[in-house]
Amino acid sequence: MTANGGIRNNKEFWQQWNNLQPDSLSKSNMYRIKELGLSPKIDNQWIKAFPEHVNYKGETLIHHHVDFGRYAIPVPSSTHVGSGGIWHTK
Question: Helix, strand or coil for residue 75?
Fold first, then answer.
């Protein structure tokens, strides 16, 4: 857990995400999560659920803690670069 009560563990985050949004993760992405311990990639199934991510196809999804809090959302890796990127602006 983070200091603010969010899920820090990548695998745990994606397992919980799958419980909430099962149609967003393809079989290959579930394999990446469950068997390899990796984050999913933006693929056609993800884009069906989140068409706004079409320009990020093939990128790895990162779980981003909103305002460094307990709630996290998946974002394309190119938009979440260290403490920069659009998700960490002041």
Answer: strand
Q: Any idea how long the chain is?
A: 90
CA 33/CA 27 separation, integer angstroms: 10
C-alpha to C-alpha distance for 85 and 51, rounded to whole angstroms:
21
Is 89 within 8 Å of 24 (Cβ atoms)?
no
The whole-angstrom separation of Cα 14 and Cα 9 is 9
pTM above 0.85, yes or no: no
Domain ranges of the chain: 10-88
Q: What is the mean pLDDT of the chain?
A: 81
Q: How far is CA 35 from CA 8, 15, 30, 42, 76, in A?
A: 19, 12, 8, 18, 21
Q: Which of 84, 35, 87, 81 is nearest to 60 (CA)?
A: 81
